[in-house]
Structures are given as structure tokens and as C-alpha cells.
Amino acid sequence: MPNSAIIFSGVRTRFAPSPTGFMHVGNLRTALYEYLLAKSMGGSFVLRIEDTDRERLVEGATDTIFQTLKCAGLIHDEGPDIGGPCGPYVQSERMHLYRPYAEQLVREGKAYYCFCTKERLDQLRLSSDNPDSAGYDRHCRTLSDDLVAEQLALNMPHVIRQKVPLEGVTTFFDHVYGEISVPNKDLEDQVLIKADGFPTYNFANIVDDHLMGITHVVRGSEYLSSTPKYNLLYQAFGWNIPEYVHLPLIQGKNPDGTVSKLSKRHGATGFEDLVAEGYLPEAIINYIALLGWCPKDNTQEVFSLEELVRAFSIDGISKSPATFDYDKLDWFNSEYIRAMDARAFYEHAAPYYRQLGVDEALSATLLEVLQPRITKFIEIPEKISYVKALPEYDLSLFEHKKSKSTIETSISMLGKLTDLLSDISEWNKDSLMSRLTALAESEGVKNALVMWPLRIAVTGTLVTPGGAVEALLLIGQKESLNRIEIARARLSIFNN
Predict the structure, then answer these.
(1) CA proximity to 88, closest of 46, 27, 42, 39
(2) Residue 377: C-alpha distances to residues 166, 277, 332, 455 (Å)
(3) Of 106, 133, 319, 388, which residue is least crowded by CB atoms under 10 Å?
(4) At 7, is the pLDDT very low, low, confident or very high (cuts 50, 70, 90)?
(5) Rounded (to 5) percent helix, strand, coil in the chain
């Protein structure tokens, strides 16, 4: 054989994505669980790129895989970018390995050459009672050695197929779904080497996992049906069979209340898309970890990656489908935002402050106003959009039953506020609050009767994060006075 397995000690898992597009939630959860399993048991996490499906390759997808894992904090111990003892870690660079192994199986009577044309296979499917599930009829399985040699000498197009036993049962154990048995007669003689010389996903997967010493295979439950064929290949070679961990389906909520397999129609399902929508990588990872897994101490929901490593165990994985809930992801994101210190919050928020033209010296006020009230940083421009420009607003906003504010009281109060705010030399929270509350006391009214028309005048918005004082600070003295004058003029015209 062109290569042989290296003897490793300890747990070894691998994440082996195909570079066929963005990294969706299901891929990321698989990578996360493989990482957590390896690290929780002091093992190694390997990255391998499986690019043998040449027709589906997407330019730039491999870079997306690297960037996503790095951003998510899932740092691999071996891989295409950092190397390791089992390289190369890209399947298209390992092409010299696969055919010799397949031909070994042919020599041992455990695989065979198949010369069936595409037209014959298509006709086979069309003539079946159930075309979608029609399997190969093993037409070439019993060809004579002489006929096979003749066809090969003529360079006839062919594939190499696995010779699955026609009798007996293949049984395997999965850490999530338990013991599963499948009659061999229900298994198809799957293709190992395609007509173009490339290995199939299943075959390359087996060879690479063996050569890289993978001890635990973590993947979606959709691969359960393929596992017996995997095991028959391991047995045919006399290789150790890895332990299996098949993960439950991730579902999305449909508009009618039902659920179905998570897809783009449910919203952003790619890691990059979720980050672009304002979700923090650590919040995404935390939430995805709980999509199908539960810690033994079920009282904690917010975990750092290090805490997840310490808490993770295979027996916490459920076989029931998990439902991706954007409301719950919003909650996780808001929890991470609330837990940030002032510096971290500022670093995330600063680009939006600059976009609005807010004085970054007011970061303490912005922190107080925004941190308890946003679920994503991208909400900042909407929350305080009034800072950049006074929106058009209806004068009916000045009327508010609870604060007893009317058009008439607003005209009167704004007139007093113009004089009051013009004389303030120190435009800060304490100074503004003391002046405004003193005005309410001198007028014999509640603070709300002062604050309501003031906030409407300077923000033109019914609901704002923070109150009138915070709005004054964000807008500044000159612009605040300008907006109060605009409101007074509009109210006076309306009232005449």
C-alpha cells in the first residue's frame, strides 16, 4: 500500500467538510461536537478538506471553512494550513492513495470492476417500481476474469464497486441511537472509484479516517443508513472500526407553526450570514452547542467555549430533532452583550457610533443607554437614529395621557426649557437632571410633564433607549436647542 496508518494514542476526531458553499449551522454543530469531544478527552481535532466532488466545488469555500473555524474558536491540531503527521489533508492531494486500496479489494474478491454504461443505469432506474430508491442490480458482479481483463485491455470506462455480502446482517453501535442492525441484502454494491478515477465520498472517507487514526466519527443522522457499508469496508480491510456518534436533525420553524429540516427559507443558516446579521460568534457557538446536547447539570445555559469543553460528554446528546429558534439565539446574544465590559462593548459599537456621527467621548452614556436594550449591535443605528437627523414626526406625539402632556402644556414647557437649557454651561448628566427636575418642582408638576415634550422635541420618536437627558447628551446643546425651537414653531402654528 502507498501509505499506512500511523499508530496514535488517545481520541482523534476529524471535521471533513466539502468546499461546496457556506458553512451552515448543521456543519458548524458537527465541527463543534467533534472539537468538544476531542478536547474534553484530551485528544486531537483534525481538519480535512474533502474535495473529490469536483462538480460541486465553490471557489473560495475552503477559505470560508478556515475563517469560520477560526472565528468560532475551533482551532484544529492538524490540517491543510498547519500540516501534521498524516498529510496532505486535502483529498485531491491524496489521489494516489485510493485506487490501490480499491484494487486490493478487487484482488481479494471483495470488490469488482463494473462496466455498466450511464444509459444502462438510467434505464435500470426508469424500469424500477420505485425509481428514487432503485439500486444497482449487480450485473457485473459475476463477470468472468477473462471478460474483465478484456474490457480493461480495451480501456473501457468502468467503476469499482464494493461486493457487499448477500446474506447475513451488519450490526453496529452508535453512541446516540444505540445498536442498529441492517440485513446485508438491503445494501447496494456502492461505487468506490468513479469512472473519472476519483474516489467516492464514502470510500475516500474510510481510507482517510483509517490512515489518520480517527477514533470517533461524528456526523449527521442522515449517514446512519450508510454506516453498515462503511463497516463492511473496515472489515474487508481488517481495520479497526471507529466509534460512531450520529447527530439528530436540526429543524426550522415554518410560518404555519410546523417544523421541517433547517434551510435558507427559515432565515440565515450560515455562520457568516448570522455574524453579518449581528450575532456574536461566541453566542452562536453557545446556542448551537445546545441544539441536541444537554449538560448533566441542566441549570446552566450560558457557556464559554472552555466551559463547554469541561461539561461536554457524548451521553448528553439527544436523538430527538432540535429546533433552531431565532428568538432564543437573540436571547443568547443579548446575554453576551450585557456581560461585556465597557471596553469590549465600545469596540463592537464604535463603527456604528462613527456611522451616526456620535461623539465617542459619550461612550459611557451610550453604554448605559444601549447595553441593556439591544440584542445585536447592528440595532444601534435604528435605536438612536435620531442623533444623525431629526425624523419627521406627528405633533400628536406630544399628547400623552399618563404624563398629562398636551399640545398646550408642551408649548408652555418648551418655552421654559429653551431659556433653561441655553444657560447651562456644563452639559452633563448631573447638571441637566438637576436643572430639569428643579423646573418641574418650581412649576408644581411631575417630572414627566417636563421630560415628555422635551424628549419628543429632540428625538421626534415615541420610544427611545434612555430618557430625555440621555438624548440631550447624545445630540449636544446646540442641536438640542435647535430642535426645541423647531418643535415650538410647529406647535404654535398648529395651535393657532
Answers:
(1) 46
(2) 60, 9, 13, 23
(3) 133
(4) confident
(5) 50, 15, 35
Is the distance from CB of 115 to CB of 140 less than 8 angstroms? yes
Spatial separation of the C-alpha atoms in residues 345 and 394, rounded to whole Å: 34
Task: Summarize pLDDT for 442-453 with one digit per residue, the tens.
Answer: 999 999 999 999
CB 384 within 8 A of CB 378: no
In whole angstroms, give the CA distance from residue 278 to residue 283.
Answer: 10
* 488 contacts 458 by C-beta, under 8 angstroms: no
The whole-number pLDDT of residue 449 equals 97
With beta carbons less than 8 A apart as the criterion, state whether 12 and 53 touch.
Answer: no
For residue 11, which phi and psi values (nearest 5 degrees)?
-75, 135
pLDDT at 234: 98
In sequence order, what are the beta bridge partners of 257?
Answer: none
For 115-136, how does the pLDDT look when each residue is reduced to its tens digit (9 = 90+)?
A: 999 999 989 888 876 655 457 9
CA angle 384, 386, 387 (to 5 degrees): 75
Evaluate if residue 181 carries a pLDDT over 90.
yes
Does the annotation mark 328 as catalytic? no
Beta strands in 206-347, from DSSP E residues, in sequence order: 216-220, 243-247, 250-253, 259-261, 322-324
**243 φ/ψ angles, rounded to the nearest 5 degrees:** -85, 145
Structural element, H or E, at residue 456 = helix 447-459
Q: Which residues pair with 114 in a beta bridge?
A: 159
How many percent of the chain have pLDDT more than 70?
A: 98
Q: Which pLDDT value is given to residue 359?
A: 87
The radius of gyration computed from the CA coordinates of the chain, to the nearest angstrom, equals 33
Contacts for 48 with CB less than 8 Å, ≥ 6 apart? 14, 15, 16, 79, 80, 89, 90, 91, 208, 212
Pairing relationship of beta strands 250-253 and 259-261 according to DSSP bridges: antiparallel
Sign of CA dihedral 367, 369, 371, 376: negative
What is the reported pTM?
0.90
The C-alpha atoms of residue 191 and residue 491 are separated, in whole angstroms, by: 80
| Integer Cα distance of 435 and 437 in angstroms | 6
pLDDT at 1 over 60: no
Single out the residue of 253, 229, 256, 250 nearest to residue 241, CA to CA: 229
Give the residue among 106, 105, 185 at the shortest CA–CA distance from 138: 185
Out of 185, 261, 264, 404, pick the active-site residue.
264
DSSP, collapsed to helix, strand or coil, labels residue 169 as: strand
Q: What is the pLDDT of residue 22?
A: 82
SS3 273: helix
The 10 Å CB-count burial string (b at 16+, else e) for 102-130 is: beebbeeebbbbbbbeeeeeeebeeeeee
Predicted confidence at residue 131, as pLDDT, reads 56
Return mean pLDDT, the chain: 94
